[in-house]
Fold Amino acid ABC transporter permease.
Amino acid sequence: MPLLGFVQQMGIGALMTIQVAVCAYLFALAIGILFALATLKPKSLMRIVWVPYSSVFTGVPSLLIAFLFFYAGSGMLNQLGALIGMDIQIEITPFMAAVTALGMVYGAYLTDLIRSAIQNVPRGQFEASDVLLVPRPVTWIKVILPQVLRLALPGMTNMWIVVLKDTALVSLIGLKEIMAYAKLASGVTKEPFVYYLLASVFFLGMTWLTYVVARRVEKWTECGFRPMVTKGRAHAL
């Protein structure tokens, strides 16, 4: 196969990498928001679910979770369907296993990140909204969430980069993403440096683009924000 053909294949793999990363991150973000809101209170009943969930998915490598979902997921879902009287045959694809594994692993980390950001919003914000008779949903959407985004944005940006880089692992379950095509091209042409360098350029480019977008979002979230501590020396000497 000509050189251009392998480059085109790596372009297809790069698109698949982006799709997996975006879907997994959105899934993780949904899990993070759900558990963060549900476990704000120390004695919440949701902590019965949260504690074992976080212990498992932060203590087991994401690749191992992907293996479990890919090789055992179909059987578990089909057996679950049989227990409730449904004759279903669900086939777990490599894409589904990758998105589910990365989403559930990093959803546990995003939960702690988002919960910490919410807890760092001054309590006076809620009290002022109550005094002004602002409905609680409006308070959350227009007052609390913009501040949570400002506080959590650096951590969320780093988490997105980690999810993007971890997509390289899911080639081991048969997903044709950029690293899978780089490995294929390297084996055929015997020029691993060229194709792995192209893959490195892709990840570096995505990381640079992430920081550019994150910086713009950060400037937007800081509109109207005035820090209490002025810049300068933190001591009198």
Summary: Confidence is low (pLDDT under 50) at residues 230-237. The two ends are 69 Å apart (CA to CA).
